[in-house]
Amino acid sequence: MDWRRTAKEAAAIVGLALVPALVLNFGLIRRQLRGDFAHSLVLPEGTAGVAFIGLAEAGDLFQSGDALFVDNRSGEVYAAGHIPGALSVPFKDAVEGAIPLDPGALKTSPDRPLVVYCEGGDCQTSVLVTQLLKKAGFGDVRIFEGGWTEWEGAGFPVEVGLDQE
Predict the structure, then answer these.
(1) Do both 57 and 132 map to the same domain?
(2) Phi/psi at 29 (nearest 5 deg)?
(3) Can you give the pTM of this predicted structure?
(4) How would you classify the pairing of strands 68-71 and 51-53?
(5) Using CA atoms, how far apart are residues 138 and 10, in angstroms rounded to an integer?
(6) Residues facing residue 144 across a β-bridge
C-alpha cells in the first residue's frame, strides 16, 4: 500500500467536499463575518426562568387561549402575517423603550403566560425582548423557538393586518 498516494487521494476528496460546502453555506458565512449572529449565543444567566417551547406547546397554548403571544418582528412584517391575537412589540421599539412593556401597557395580567416569537431559526431577538418582559414584571415568559416560520409552515392559523387584541 502506498501511503503517500492514499494521503493525496484523501486530501483531494476533502478538498472536493469543501468547495460545495463553502458555496452552499456562503450566505451564512457572510452573515457570520458581518456579525449578524452577535446575539446568537444564549447564555443561561440571560434566560433564567424562561422556557423554550416548540410548536406543539405553542399550538396548545394558542388553542387554550391562556397565553398572550408577543410578536417581536417589525410592524411591517407583523402586518403581512402573524399568529392571531398576537401583540406587535417590534424588537427595535422594545429595546429603545418606545413601547412600554409593563402589564398595564400590554393590558394583561403579570401572571398570564406570554409566548414571545420572532422569525425562528437563528433569530435571537425573542431572547432580548423576553429579558425586558421579565424585568417589567411578567413571571411566565416563554420563547417559541420555531417562531413564525415554523408556525406558518405547519399550517396553523394566520392573521393579516395591524389589528391587535
Answers:
(1) yes
(2) -65, -45
(3) 0.71
(4) unpaired
(5) 56
(6) 53
